[in-house]
Amino acid sequence: MAIWVVYESLWGNTAAIARAIAEGIGDEAVAVSTADTDPADATSIRALIAGAPVHGMSLPTSQSLLSAAGKKADESHAAPRVDEPLMRTWLEGLPQLDIPATAFDTRVRGPLGRGAATAIIRAESAKGCTLLAQPKGFRVDFRNAGPDEADLLKDGELAKARAWGQQLATSLAAAAA
Ligand SMILES: Cc1cc2nc3c(=O)[nH]c(=O)nc-3n(C[C@H](O)[C@H](O)[C@H](O)COP(=O)(O)O)c2cc1C
Fold it and tell me: Looking at residue 79, what is its pLDDT?
């Protein structure tokens, strides 16, 4: 059974973190965007790891996407992807699930307290999921902004994501034993 690392991502940074987490977990894990996967199909998975960028200290909204869409692509900024389903909408579409789950987000700074990941954990728990691991925040730095996707990530964050994926795989193996 598959493990989904599902992401919402405007500039590709959360997507890159999701791919690194899936790599760390191993062959069973796939990184997929909210556009590429139907939450109704989650009945066939073994675990769920969901991630999104922090917008306004929580999950993105249609309003925050509108504001992001105003940031046009130019030589120093990639165009934001604003046409994919919101993570908050995707989570609402989940059926009741009795599987382990956790969450991650990407953010400029600040404690994890109020962020996208804690909102995702709440939604997963409301669907019956059990907490696999505490949510994790990964850092972006706008001084890195350039024309390419996923260029905001701070140095070392992809390695941290891979290592976190390995820890999740260990926890899943222990839970299955
Ligand atoms: C509308 C908007 C609101 C944001 N609000 C926050 C915020 O409250 N806290 C924060 O740390 N970062 C904030 N950010 C920065 C995002 O977290 C950053 O753009 C994101 O991590 C990039 O990931 P992505 O490429 O996957 O979209 C905001 C960005 C946008 C566009």
Answer: 85
pLDDT at 121: 97
CA distances, 113 to each of 75, 104, 108, 156 (Å)? 35, 12, 14, 22
What is the β-pairing status of strands 130-131 and 45-53?
Answer: unpaired
Q: What pTM was computed for the model?
A: 0.96
Residues with CB under 6 A from ligand 1: 9-14, 53-57, 64, 67-68, 106-110, 140, 152
Which pLDDT score is estimated for 144?
85
Ordered domains of the chain (ranges, CATH) = 2-176 (3.40.50.360)
Instruction: Classify 66 as helix, strand or coil.
Output: helix
Other beta carbons within 10 Å of 67: 14
